[in-house]
Design a protein that fits this description.
Elements lengths: L9 H10 L1 E4 L3 E7 L6 E6 L6 H17 L8 E7 L8 H20 L1
Parallel strand pairs: 3-4
Antiparallel strand pairs: 1-2, 2-4
Length: about 110
């Protein structure tokens, strides 16, 4: 994920979460909102209740890799906030990727209907 693909401002995070649509699963909550830009932007939020800083940073790195591997699933004119839930500590990387991809595909089908 490149620097220009990251949502950094707290106000942008809050706007996407409060005014956008969302998808939820056992492991993730994905909030998304239309944007004016030509590329999708991403924010990753991991609560302090999930673990120590090392664990939280590892999760964020893994989510970034999953995003990079599956960019085709993300719409170009949207901003996304991916929130990680505590149950994610119990699963391996492949399951994390599969769950996120399944949630995104479910959201794509929902948007088309």
């Amino acid at each position: 994920m490149k620097k220009y693909e990251i949502v950094k401002k707290n106000t942008d995070f809050n706007e996407i979460i409060n005014k956008g649509k969302y998808l939820k699963s056992k492991y993730y909550s994905i909030y998304y909102k239309d944007s004016l830009g030509d590329i999708p932007k991403f924010g990753i939020a991991v609560s302090k209740s999930i673990g120590h800083a090392v664990e939280r940073n590892k999760l964020k790195r893994q989510i970034r890799v999953i995003i990079d591997n599956n960019k085709k699933l993300f719409s170009n004119r949207k901003n996304y906030i991916i929130m990680v839930r505590k149950d994610i500590l119990k699963i391996d990387f492949q399951t994390k990727e599969k769950e996120l991809v399944n949630l995104l595909e479910k959201g794509i089908k929902h948007e088309k209907n």
